[in-house]
Amino acid sequence: MNQPDQQALDNLNQDPALPQDDEPKYLRRIRSFVLREGRLTKGQQRSLELFWPVMGLEYQNELYDLNKVFGREAPKVLEIGFGMGKSLVAMAKAAQEQDFIGIEVHKPGVGACLGEAETAGVQNLRLFEHDAVEVLRDCIADGSLDTIQLFFPDPWHKKRHHKRRIVQPDFVQMLRAKLKVGGVFHMATDWENYAEHMLEVMSAAQGYQNLSGDGTYVPRPDNRPLTKFENRGVNLGHGVWDLMFKKVQ
Ligand SMILES: C[S@@+](CC[C@H](N)C(=O)[O-])C[C@H]1O[C@@H](n2cnc3c(N)ncnc32)[C@H](O)[C@@H]1O
User: Fold this and answer.
1) What is the pLDDT of residues 30-56, one digit of tens each?
2) Across the strands, what pairs with 126?
3) CA-CA distances (angstroms) from residue 44 to 80, 90, 121, 157?
4) Is 105 close to ligand 1, i.e. is its CB under 6 Å away?
5) For residue 187, which of 221, 161, 218, 149 has the smallest C-alpha distance?
6) Atom number in ligand 1 closest to CA 109
7) What is the mean pLDDT of residues 112-121?
8) Does residue 133's CB lie within 6 angstroms of at least one atom of ligand 1?
9) Do 193 and 171 meet the contact criterion of CB atoms below 8 Å apart?
10) pTM of the entire structure?
11) How far is the CA of 71 from the centre of ligand 1 (A)?
């Protein structure tokens, strides 16, 4: 009998399009990320120790009362996959009358964001280190958010990985449930094929209205900071696409 080729099995196990976690098979779902346990720098480690107790929110199987978390009633902005958190912290600093919630699975990014927030002296920011799909589903109440932002999500370039893209019909309907009526879902990407995918999913999604006059993309709003990476890309002639959709029902 032929033995399975070990290399082929290893390749299969490393295919990021397959579930990598140890959940029972029937609970598995395709995730939008592959967790890389990147090394923490000393600074990130220190920020996690010092500032997580103040700014961190633990994932729990129960809704948070966000007004209680921030100690006030103010517009709530939630960002999915904030990376190292530079633009999230800049936005929180620039809009202190709003409360910001960031979600990121990558621990070094959470550490970096905490350090950045401390340096900037922002008080209106809380972070989750967990899968945003689960945080939104289990911790965030329906109708509680004014804005949801998703900036430069992993594009999953290969066609066979497109199912990993976080923008999918079910996902955007969950987001709609979490938004207040009139609340906005704001996406940005530098990958044209993902921009087209976002536009297709959102244009077909019930209960949303495209804020673009011509039913496509919007210019970058001033409140979304231009990152160094994006600026470099723009100078090289690469495109960036912003999409904004309002919850109308
Ligand atoms: C390409 S990076 C962009 C980071 C940042 N928004 C920026 O513009 O620089 C995408 C980020 O989303 C995070 N991510 C992907 N899926 C996620 C999920 N389901 N929950 C939380 N974070 C996620 C990744 O860890 C990664 O840091």
Assistant:
1) 999 998 877 999 999 999 999 999 999
2) 101
3) 20, 18, 17, 30
4) yes
5) 149
6) 27
7) 98
8) yes
9) no
10) 0.90
11) 28
